[in-house]
Specification:
Elements lengths: L5 E3 L1 E2 L19 E3 L1 E7 L2 E10 L3 E5 L9 E5 L5 E9 L3 E6 L5 H7 L10 E3 L3 E6 L2 E11 L2 E5 L9 E6 L5 E9 L2 E6 L5 H17 L1
Parallel strand pairs: 1-3, 2-5, 2-10
Antiparallel strand pairs: 4-5, 4-7, 5-6, 6-9, 7-8, 8-9, 10-12, 11-12, 11-14, 12-13, 13-16, 14-15, 15-16
Length: 212
């Protein structure tokens, strides 16, 4: 039996808060390991799960009533409450716009205390070269983690294939195609990147984007 797909918290360097998306009900086909946060509403503190976080806001799974425009704060493992307001409310999810943009990379760089069930994924649009045997493709990376990449796969990548992944500014990473479905594919690295190397690479990507 194959491994179940796993959903984890997605990080983004965008200044825009995550937009509302159609909700998919959880089922046995997917396992979720979202980052846990504390939702602060007035003098009440509730548990929430962070599904997507950017510099400008976040999407959370809520377990209490919220309404658009409501003032809230979210506390992550760093212990620093982030203030903002509710931008949209769905069936079980809600969006939050921060009062001030946050430094997503600083959250990643300092979030090393305690066990992490999954490596954080960071949204990106970087170009990536994937080599399989004698063939090399230039593809687009959707998100990257210490353990691998998700790609827009306009190439015939086959699950189980050995590949070498090259992101500009990082050494080539040997890996394996874990899955390929539709227009996307997932590759896991044989040896995880260090969090320091990954954050340094993301810093370079952000600086290049600002300079463009």
């Amino acid at each position: 039996m194959g491994k179940r797909p796993v959903e984890t918290t997605l990080y983004s360097l965008s200044n825009q808060p995550p937009a509302q998306q159609p909700e998919r009900r959880d089922d046995e086909r997917h396992m979720t390991l979202f980052r846990v946060g504390t939702l602060i509403v007035g003098d009440r503190r509730d548990l929430c799960l962070i599904k997507n976080i950017s510099a400008g806001g976040l999407m959370l799974r809520r377990y209490c009533q919220l309404h658009v425009g409501q003032r809230i704060a979210v506390e992550l493992k760093t212990g620093q409450p982030i203030a903002g307001s509710v931008s949209w409310v769905g069936e079980s999810q809600a969006g939050m716009a921060f009062d001030q943009p946050i430094d997503v990379l600083s959250i990643l760089a300092t979030d090393e205390e305690g066990p992490r069930p999954r490596m954080p994924r960071i949204e990106t649009q970087a170009a990536v070269y994937v080599r399989a045997g004698a063939q090399t493709w230039r593809l687009q990376c959707c998100d990257v983690s210490q353990g691998g990449v998700k790609l827009v796969a306009a190439a015939p990548l086959t699950a189980g294939s050995d590949v070498v992944v090259t992101l500009s500014g990082l050494p080539p990473q040997p890996g394996v195609v874990r899955w390929s479905a539709g227009e996307h594919a997932g590759i896991s690295f044989n040896r995880p990147l260090s969090l320091t190397d990954l954050v340094g690479w993301l810093q370079g990507q952000r600086d290049s984007s600002r300079a463009a």
